[in-house]
């Protein structure tokens, strides 16, 4: 009964997140269309750059939703780990999308600085205020689950960043209204680009690292090594490999040298629990006796 209850809770959580993703996509896509139209009508690079960034976030939400769904698909004979790795690929794609958005924003902003044009500060302000409300509302929907899945957390952080960026656009519109300094618009575009680069760099670096099976940033290789070696029955270890199955699950394989195979099951259970506490759930342990030649000589 308890397991059935947990399964039902997990199923309900998945349905809830799917609805949140869908609502966030529809809400933000609608705003992107409005913002693009207003940006073209009033020739505001601030609005156009913000719309471009928001469009990249709509794509990110779509990809994150698909990755979330695929990560729940069970393993099969062809994909023995299932589709969990898709979450890492989505993180990498999202980072690349944001980099292209930055290039677009910088080019448009520089062009506007070279040839400044009159802009309606009122239009910019009201459109950006709408953006603040929509982005903040979408972020709020992800608050509950942001610490349960990295993709959900990424979506949450994107929305929070967008809300802050829209605040910046509001400020530029107010400056234009009160001072007539139209360069505030492209300058805001450049600031937005800098914010995106700052928030995207760690995502790009970590997704690249995980995509080539690097050790996840939240795992310390030396610490894991010491955790295993600290067991009284463990004489030595080798062929220790740590990588990410997905953005939320880590895996490990290692060869462990024991002094006495009679304690193998106890050692196995203890080490699995220690590794679970350290953030690694998918564990494969191979045990050997001292002075036994390892059949696998490769690293």
Structure overview:
This protein is mainly α. It has two domains: 2-211, Alpha-lytic protease prodomain-like (Up-down Bundle); 221-289, Cation efflux protein, cytoplasmic domain (Alpha-Beta Plaits, 2-Layer Sandwich). It is built from eight helices and three strands; from the N terminus they run αααααααββαβ. A three-stranded mixed beta sheet has the order 1-2-3, with helices on one face. α1 packs antiparallel against α4.
Brief summary:
This protein is 66% helix and 9% strand.
Any chance you could write out the topology, listing elements then pairs?
Blueprint: H1 2-41, H2 45-70, H3 86-114, H4 121-142, H5 150-179, H6 184-211, H7 221-229, E1 234-244, E2 250-258, H8 264-277, E3 282-289
Parallel strand pairs: 2-3
Antiparallel strand pairs: 1-2
Helix pairs in contact: 1-2, 1-4, 2-3, 2-5, 2-6, 3-6, 4-5, 5-6
> Considering DSSP H and I runs of 4 or more, what fraction of the residues is helical?
55-70%
Roughly what fraction of the amino acids lie in strands?
A: 5-15%
Mean residue pLDDT: 81
The unreliable regions are 1-13
Examine the secondary-structure arrangement and name the CATH architecture of the largest domain.
Answer: Up-down Bundle
Largest sheet: 3 strands, mixed
Query: Could you tell me the number of beta strands?
Result: 3
How many domain units? 2
Number of helices in the DSSP assignment? 8
Given this structure, which CATH class of the largest domain is correct? Mainly Alpha
In the CATH hierarchy, the third-tier topology of the largest domain is known as Alpha-lytic protease prodomain-like
Would you tell me the structural class of the helices and strands? mainly alpha
In CATH terms, the superfamily of the largest domain is Cation efflux protein transmembrane domain
Task: Report the radius of gyration as a whole number of Å.
Answer: 25 Å
How many angstroms separate the termini? 44 Å
Helix and strand sequence: HHHHHHHEEHE
Biggest β-sheet: strands ordered side by side in the sheet: 1-2-3
How would you sum up the global shape? elongated
């Amino acid at each position: 009964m308890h397991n059935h209850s947990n399964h039902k809770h997990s199923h309900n959580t998945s349905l809830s997140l799917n609805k949140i993703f869908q609502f966030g996509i529809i809400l933000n896509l609608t705003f992107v269309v409005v913002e693009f139209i207003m940006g073209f009508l009033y020739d505001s690079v601030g609005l156009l750059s913000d719309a471009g960034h928001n469009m990249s976030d709509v794509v990110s939400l779509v990809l994150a939703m698909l990755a979330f769904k695929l990560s729940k698909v069970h393993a099969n004979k062809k994909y023995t780990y299932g589709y969990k790795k898709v979450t890492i690929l989505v993180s990498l794609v999202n980072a690349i999308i944001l980099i292209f958005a930055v290039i677009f924003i910088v080019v448009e902003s520089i062009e506007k600085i070279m040839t400044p044009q009159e802009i309606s500060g009122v239009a910019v302000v009201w459109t950006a205020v709408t953006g603040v409300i929509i982005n903040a509302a979408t972020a709020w929907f992800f608050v509950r689950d942001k610490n349960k899945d990295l993709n959900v957390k990424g979506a949450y952080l994107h929305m929070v960043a967008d809300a802050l960026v829209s605040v910046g656009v509001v400020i530029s519109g107010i400056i234009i209204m009160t001072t007539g300094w139209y360069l505030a618009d492209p300058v805001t575009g450049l600031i937005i680009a800098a914010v995106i680069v700052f928030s995207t760099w760690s995502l790009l670096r970590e997704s690249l690292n995980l995509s080539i099976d690097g050790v996840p940033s939240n795992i310390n290789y030396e610490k894991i090594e010491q955790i295993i070696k600290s067991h009284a029955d463990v004489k030595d270890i080798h062929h220790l490999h740590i990588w990410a199955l997905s953005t939320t699950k880590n895996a490990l394989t290692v060869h462990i040298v024991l002094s006495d195979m009679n304690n193998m099951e106890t050692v196995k259970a203890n080490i699995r629990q220690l590794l679970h506490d350290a953030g690694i759930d998918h564990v494969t342990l191979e045990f050997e006796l001292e002075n036994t030649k390892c059949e696998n000589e490769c690293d």
